[in-house]
Amino acid sequence: MSPAKKRARAYDPAKIRAAILSQFTHVREAVAFLSPEQLAGPTRLGAWTVRDLAAHLAMALETVSLGLGSEEPSKPELTLTEWPFATAPRAAAIADRTRDFAEANPDLDALYARTGERFTASLATAPEARLLAARTGAMTLADYLVTRTVELVVHTDDLNAAVPGLDVPYDRQALAACTRLLADALAVKAPGGSTEVRIPPYAVVQCVEGPRHTRGTPPNVVETDPLTWIRLATGRVTWPEAVENAQVSASGERADLGGLLPLMG
Q1: pLDDT per position as a tens digit, 56-78
Q2: Assuming Cys at both sites, which of 6, 62, 143, 246 could form a disulfide with 80, CB separation 3.0 to 4.6 Å?
Q3: 10 and 138 part of one domain
Q4: In whole angstroms, what is the distance from residue 154 CA to residue 60 CA?
């Protein structure tokens, strides 16, 4: 059975909710201490300023309460592992909406307080199976919440890269969920069993067509740390850069993942 057909990975809904709130709190506490000069600074996300990025982090969470406040779709359109591939076509629209959202919410502390309160209130009675009308496609609430760990972790890393010395911490559960979802997306994009991708301590997946490994040391092995994997999967770091800087080890003729990355834009 190929990785694409395997049973979907299970996530504990309570842990995911707690992880989202924890990571959001980490970001809110860090953003509160940024100076106007720091907020006006550049990021690695094109024309986005640090303020735009901070606003986007709140916007990513606010989509949950907005979705739950809207009419429920009749049927799901996306599975969890399909979501990473649905983001790139909307990149330009998301960038435009982020800049508008940042301009409409100049008081970041008030925005973060309001967003956190709405998120908590909207989830109080919402069942995990409830369908939510996301811009990328309708998903179950349980699945959509896992995607919020990706948004929060990826953009926390962007924030840390933009502001030297900021060092916003990563909630362990949020980092784990983000790592696992992007690893599973790789297995969907390149189904097979010839290459083992290891991202300790959170994920191991089999992928890439070819002879399937059954015992002993796999002939094709890729290993890296969670943040490097997330940067590779989202295009923050290229495969050649990661290999050259010894951020990833790759052995075997089918261990070059450069042609498969990034997974999402």
Answers
A1: 999 999 999 999 999 999 999 99
A2: 143
A3: yes
A4: 11
Answer yes or no: do 132 and 249 share one domain: no
Q: Are residues 224 and 190 both part of a single domain?
A: yes
Say if residues 163 and 48 touch (Cβ distance below 8 Å).
no
Q: How many Å from the N-terminal Cα to the C-terminal Cα in the chain?
A: 29
Cα(208)–Cα(220) distance, integer angstroms: 10
Residues with Cβ within 8 Å of residue 130, at least 6 apart in sequence: 68, 72, 140, 141
Q: Are 14 and 81 found together in one domain?
A: yes
29: CATH: 1.20.120.450
DSSP state of 129: T
pLDDT tens string 145-204: 999 999 999 999 999 999 999 999 999 999 999 999 999 999 999 999 999 999 999 999
- How would you list the strands of the sheet with 248-251, edge to edge? 203-207, 195-199, 221-224, 248-251
The continuous run of DSSP H or E covering 159 comes out as helix 141-162
For residue 27, the enclosing domain spans 3-173
Q: Which amino acid, one-letter code, is at 86? A: A
CA atoms lying within 13 Å on the CB side of residue 218: 25
Q: Which of 194, 187, 213 is nearest to 7 (CA)?
A: 187
DSSP single-letter state for residue 214: -
| Same domain membership, residue 183 and residue 167 | no
Residues 180 and 198 in one domain: yes
How many whole angstroms separate alpha carbon 202 and alpha carbon 178? 10
Which tokens belong to 205? 């997946």
- What's the number of domains the chain is made of? 2
- Last residue of some domain: 173, 189, 213? 173
Query: Residue 2 is encoded by which pair of tokens?
Result: 């190929």
